[in-house]
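On clarity, I found the account of how folds are encoded harder to follow than it need be. For illustration, here is how one protein appears when written out as sequence plus structure tokens.
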Amino acid sequence: MIELRNISADSADRLLGETGYLSDHETKKNIDKQLLNDYSIKHKRDNGYKEIDLSYAKKVIDEALKNEDYFIENKGSLAGATFQEQWIAPRLHYSLRLTRSEAADPKLWNYLGLVFEDYIVNRWTGKGGGFNNEKSKPLEYHFLLKQWDRHQLSKLWWMAELTRSNGSYHPKGGIINTDIINYIVALLAPQSIQYNLAVLEIENDVLGDGEFVLNTEWIRAIYRLINRKILHESGSVKSGLKINFEEAERWFNETPNNKFLTIKSKELPPAPKDIVIDKKEIQKVVDWIRSGIKNQISTEWKHLNDIAVEIITDTKTPLKREEIYAKGLEAGNYSQDWQKRELAFSLEFDKTRFKKDGSKWTLN
């Protein structure tokens, strides 16, 4: 059994600094495991659940490392590292058996980041070959918990946690692209599995008309919409869920099955069955999101595009999105940073008035 331990940020920072991982110096050395043990303390569960054995999480990480070629060769349109993260996320969650309370402790993730240093170094060290940019290098927040969406292991655990229900993980651990991690984990907002599942539900048909698939721009716009509308429309009670505490207790005291932790296994491991959400409840949130989007199309996004029509008409020449925004800003018609970000998006769907030639927009 490999025990789980906690380590403070100061002690973890000292050990990490001695490796040279964060510097440009060519000489690197691994974390001093004896000092890591000396500076850390055993993680004690205060809930009476079975002690956590890290050997299962180690198996997941070891499999991911030794099968890097598999992730590169089967990545499809993704980066190899992203495909690898999709594979790791549900299996890391399954193997660790953490409660949300435990997973909210930075000291725990500091320890895991140092214990599984080889994976983090491999994930972020530039090698090229379709896996990493050759200039990339690991940063402190990849190892130590500074931001929830940046720590390489915590972000994968939370993605699996915030996109699971009814005893099943999302097939991709919720990671349909790297940007969705920022919106689900960075804010832990809307801190509701129902919203995340509803967003993932419309991955291949955002508005229900077969017109749009979920991409980074859609994700940004939808989560902005969700977070704003929750405050004004009680969005947090749009759907409900049930908690089965007996299933939770069974899960935390169960031993993970190694058969789910290898590349050879094509099965996802089973998730805990403590969170129960009816499909009709998810559909309520889907309908709510789509209604909000359609309202936004006819109000805020229409306003952005009305201004763009005037600008392109006046200049009588195709313009890049940045140029449209700059001219609108100069005239006082645009004034906020979100307008610059969402202008690119609002132009895309307004096909009756705009067409794109390369990176420039003109009028139909």
